[in-house]
Amino acid sequence: MAKEWSGFFYRGCYFPNCVYNIETVKSNPMDQWDIRPDDVVVLTYPKSGTFWMLNLLSSLYTDLNLLLPASNKVVRLDQFYEDADDVPGSYGQHAKAMKESLHAMPSPRLLFCHLPFQLFPRTWQDGEKKCKIIYLARNPKDVCVSYYHYMQGILWAGMDLNWDEWVHAFVDGKVWYGSWLDHVLGWRRFGLKENVLHVTFEDMKKDSKSVLVKVADFLNRPKSDEELDEVVKNCSFTSMSQGVEFYKLISSTADQNSFVSSVRHLRKGQVGDWKNHFLVSQNEFFDREITVKAENDGQKFVYHM
């Protein structure tokens, strides 16, 4: 029997034991988030282009507040669910600071989140409070590959699965944030009338400017061609991966026990890198369990460029 990443399911989502315990999750502290109508939330399944979109938005709209004053780092809302006392270094420190001082961030805020829809605050789902959500999706094969390399770098996470074991865990939803398929299909039910804009990583790779035009229209904050061209140029994936400053927004590299000390947040950013990893049998299994099911639900992704 293949190894599994130790954790538990709760409300359809998988929570690895390295960061979560059942009591912390059951307390559902995400409902403590003070949703504001001018909040902009980038919502993704992990490794779908999150920080690329954040960088584009923060460059395009400099008035959006991206950093938590208490830690000077970007805010990931689902850290409300985490048991920060069990997490070492600056990652745990930031999680604690976020829970204590998110309400102190001035508006308008730029936030990000990886949660499936059923764990997002009920006040948003019930229509009592609204914010702007940009849901960024990426083809699941490239997500699977990028996620695997990413988790291998988080030494304290206890993810010691080999590639084949990871593929099966990913398909079974036994990875951080659960099933990719459930996540994408779950959020897909929400559209513009619920203040949710859907875009894809592959469209961003093909034509970032066109995606930003859609985002600007969605936010009711149009920008000129010149402004859009400048942001696209300065915030290309290549420019970001060669830079240093954006990494400093995530965690402190000076803390050798920190989250980022052994992690590459930006690796290749390619469309089609999955071909360098999947064996034929793995690809057939993945297609049967995820790709075909997504396409049957109308979710068609680009797998090579």
Task: Summarize this structure briefly.
This protein is of the alpha/beta class. It is built from 13 helices and eight strands. The chain has helices at residues 22-26, 50-60, 89-101, 122-125, 140-153, 163-172, 180-188, 201-206, 208-218, 225-234, 237-242, 245-248, 280-296; strands at residues 7-10, 13-16, 40-44, 67-68, 73-74, 110-113, 132-137, 196-200.
Structural features, described:
This protein has helices at residues 22-26, 50-60, 89-101, 122-125, 140-153, 163-172, 180-188, 201-206, 208-218, 225-234, 237-242, 245-248, 280-296, and strands at residues 7-10, 13-16, 40-44, 67-68, 73-74, 110-113, 132-137, 196-200. It has 305 residues and is an alpha/beta fold. It has a 4-stranded parallel β-sheet with strand order 6-3-7-8, with helices on both faces. Helix 6 packs parallel to helix 13. The radius of gyration is 18 Å and the shape is globular. Residues 244-249 and 251-265 have low confidence and may be disordered.
